[in-house]
Design a protein that fits this description.
Blueprint lengths: L2 E7 L5 H7 L3 H13 L3 E9 L2 E8 L2 H16 L3 H4 L4 E4 L1 H11 L11 H15 L5 H20 L2 H4 L3 H9 L5 H5 L3 E5 L3 H13 L3 E6 L2 H13 L6 E6 L3 H5 L4 E4 L10 H12 L49 H15 L8 H21 L19 E5 L16 E4 L1 H8 L7 H50 L5 H30 L6 H9 L4 H18 L3
Parallel strand pairs: 5-6, 5-8, 6-7, 8-9, 9-10
Antiparallel strand pairs: 1-3, 1-4, 2-3
Helix pairs in contact: 2-3, 5-7, 5-18, 6-7, 7-18, 15-16, 18-19, 18-20, 18-21
Length: 559
């Protein structure tokens, strides 16, 4: 087994990078074709969701595989390899199996325990099967991952630890309050008619909204979703479909907006949302400042000489030492900024005490550590919440990657936007259920069992080839014996044949049983090579057994 996974997720990369690296359906298809066409890989599958992009492959060389898969991800995502590399993670063999099983159980999700990932893994496998890029390894791996995920949800209470992104997002819109009380009687606009949008619409209907308007580029799909909502027995919502060009008008009527499309550009701009807010309140909404002001007592360095920031353009109260100030800086520029700030600490005009200088030094050190790890300070897309802000009149949930709704809406008074980035921040503080530990144990056990089964299966063709060779030797010797002893009758020939077969079977039984046991242990795959060398087995015979097994398993595999 030479399983390799290269990817990035909400745990390794900022949302701004994930957003740019998102792969649409066509890009995923091209990536799969190019991966199996590359020399190190023989199988490939892509798992692309709103918060992860992962490329799985069966490779024959680790380092060449990592280089090739990383390059292909960069090429097809449109993010340069140099920029993408700091955010990539790599898992190999058992660690790769452990990663996918953890993902399938919801342990690696933005909202721990959510079950939507199982459907996404199933879709990923189906795509690879349709494109004929999934062979025995990835078929077995992904199907076992689905079984492990289902086992985790059925045998533990992991469902209590988390929920779908839709439910979690609605809870954030409701500011932690009761979602049904918050949603009751509101009008909702759902943009998109895919699986996530459909889930959002159904969740809103059950929560008690009075009306749902579905907008989609393919009007027939919007109509179908509206009909399903209208006919459902578990809600009393009024639902209707509109075309995408009606979205601006519907936006002025909607209280809640959920958007999840495959669009590559913005579906809702800050200006369109501002217009909707103005239509509700009768006055244009205030746009809050982009950067957070520091406390009045926070000192600033005395001079701007050698400072990499444009201090003349800085807004009043802009902190030249804070994270917002250095957003996007690479490590070299940050080092220059740190040197400048440290120089400011020694100036008498700065009015700094030894204690405050130490605090500044700690801040710069922490920022430098971040830059050393990820290559640059992550972009700060949203300000800190302000103390006084009017109650929102429009609530927006953006579940798309890349984003559908302009991030500038975060700064519009009268609007509350929850997107993938803010969901990631909120989920970091979400409580973990005790059942998570039980799920982790299930994953560990399943990884060990899967690895043992794969290693044992790896040696089976060699064992079969060995027994085939032994049978051929027996047949040749029996034929030679018949030629030398032509006077033997059929009964005597049968007795001799059975005796020789019993001797060979007894000689091979213990070694083949033991080698299967040894092969199932970590590092046991080398026993197959040793067996082929010791008995001088024909490599083509072993390969033909493997091809026959793959063909049989593919034919018998359940749909």
């Amino acid at each position: 087994m030479s399983l390799l996974v290269v990817g990035l997720s909400h745990r390794s990369a900022p949302v701004s990078v994930l957003e740019r690296a998102a792969l649409n359906a066509d890009a995923q298809t091209k990536l799969l074709h190019d991966t199996v066409a590359a020399e190190p890989a023989t199988e490939a599958a892509v798992l692309a969701t709103c918060n992860r992009i992962e490329l799985y492959a069966d490779v024959d060389k680790f380092h060449a595989g990592v280089a090739e898969l990383s390059t292909l991800l960069a090429q097809h995502s449109g993010v340069g390899l140099e920029e993408l590399t700091p955010y990539l993670y790599v898992h190999y063999e058992d660690r790769a199996v452990h990663h996918l099983f953890s993902v399938a159980c919801g342990l690696d999700s933005m909202v721990v325990g959510e079950g939507q990932i199982l459907g996404q893994i199933k879709d990923s496998l189906a795509r690879a099967q349709d494109l004929h890029t999934a062979g025995k390894l990835l078929n077995d791996l992904f199907q076992q991952a689905l079984r492990v995920g289902k086992r985790a949800h059925s045998e533990t209470g992991i469902d209590r630890a988390g929920q779908s992104l839709v439910t979690f997002g609605l809870e954030q819109l409701a500011a932690g309050g009761d979602v049904q009380r918050w949603a009751a009687g509101r009008r909702a606009l759902v943009i998109g008619a895919g699986s996530m949008s459909s889930l959002a619409a159904a969740t809103l209907a059950r929560a008690g909204v009075a009306e749902i308007v579905v907008a989609n580029r393919t009007f027939d799909r919007a109509e179908r979703l509206a009909e399903i909502l209208q006919e459902a027995d578990d809600n009393a919502v009024t639902a209707r479909a509109v075309r995408m060009n009606a979205v601006p008008d519907e936006l002025t009527r909607a209280d809640v907006v959920v958007s999840c499309t495959g669009a590559t550009g913005l579906v809702l701009t800050a200006e369109s949302v501002a217009g909707a807010v103005e239509g509700r309140t009768g006055q244009p909404p205030v746009t809050e400042p982009r950067f957070t002001a520091v406390k009045p007592e926070a000192p600033q360095p005395a001079a701007d000489e050698n400072c990499p920031l444009d201090l003349a353009a800085a807004q009043p109260g802009f902190s030249v030492l804070g994270e917002a100030a250095v957003a996007g800086m690479d490590a070299a520029t940050l080092e220059q900024h740190a040197t400048w700030a440290a120089g400011g600490n020694t100036r008498a005009a700065g009015g700094r005490t030894t204690e405050s200088a130490e605090v500044d030094a700690e801040l710069i050190t922490a920022l430098a550590a971040t830059a050393a790890t990820v290559g640059r300070i992550p972009e700060r897309r949203r300000p800190e919440p302000v103390a006084e802000r009017p109650a929102p009149v429009v609530f927006l949930l953006d579940l798309a990657m890349p984003r559908d709704i302009d991030a500038a809406v975060h700064r519009l008074a009268g609007a509350r936007l929850v997107d993938i980035e803010s969901l990631a921040e909120a989920s970091a503080d979400a409580p973990m259920a005790a059942d998570v530990d039980q799920v982790r144990r299930i994953v560990s056990d399943e990884v060990a069992a899967f690895g043992a089964a794969m290693r044992a299966a790896h040696i089976t063709p060699t064992v079969v080839a060995l027994r085939t060779m032994a049978a051929d030797v027996v047949a040749a010797e029996i034929a030679r014996l018949h030629g030398r002893l032509p006077d033997l009758d059929d009964r005597q020939r049968g007795e001799i044949r059975q005796a020789v077969h019993r001797v060979v079977d007894k000689l091979l039984h213990a070694p083949t049983v033991r080698i299967k046991q040894l092969a199932a242990e970590p590092g046991g795959t080398g026993y197959a090579d040793a067996l082929r060398t010791l008995f001088d087995l024909d490599p083509e015979t072993v390969a033909s057994v493997s091809r026959a097994e793959d063909s049989t398993e593919t034919k018998d595999r359940p749909a």
